[in-house]
Amino acid sequence: MIKNYFLLLLLMVSNAIIAQETLTFNGYDGAPATITATSSTVNDQITIVFEDVDLINNFYTDGRTYIHMYGGLDTPSGGFQGSPGFNDLGSQPQLTLVSTDTDANAGPNTYSLTINLAQFYTGVPDGTTVFGFNLLFQNEFGGGGNNQTADLYIDLIDAVKNSTLSITETKKTVFSAKMIDNQLLISNFNGVVTIKAYNILGKEILRIPNLEVNNTLRKTLNLPKNQISIVVIETAKSRHTLKVVL
Fold it and tell me: Where in the sequence is the signal peptide annotated (predicted)?
């Protein structure tokens, strides 16, 4: 999916109210698989979950409480960019058996890992466009045969890699703002604000100018559902930016 993040600089100083996304490979059966992110870029923290149904034949996880993730970023230079050596298990992230899976000898085995791909794969320079994440899992026996999975892929929202970007990063402003469902709540401010909203392609989808705020304001915005929107609240002296998914 090729989507340009024209608002990247805004996101670097934004409040993010989007929940951390969990990307799950369910019921692995030995075949390659692709899952598509709905809100995450390379710069976001994500949780990757892998479920192995057959613990012996397709991928040997019988009794394994952790597995290794061999992966790399998908960029204009190709896939698996920035990956460590395939046999360098010590440099590969580990997924661990989830706490609700209490028996590693009985299928399915389910493993998870929370990771920021931009911060982990430092071999890919900041400023590189990243389309997705190539990966496979292997056990401690070093890959090959049923000691590894087939190639897998996470299709991320295209973005320019920035390892300093955090979705919890904020810019100091003279007021606070947050979204509750489809309502914008502004507090601790007296004066005039202009509210704008943009879609992921940078098209302005909402503009409400010259709203008077007397300490607090609650305003329904009617933003599109199941899409990323960027809400910008401007005053004469400051700007506050929110990344929103409803």
Answer: 1-19
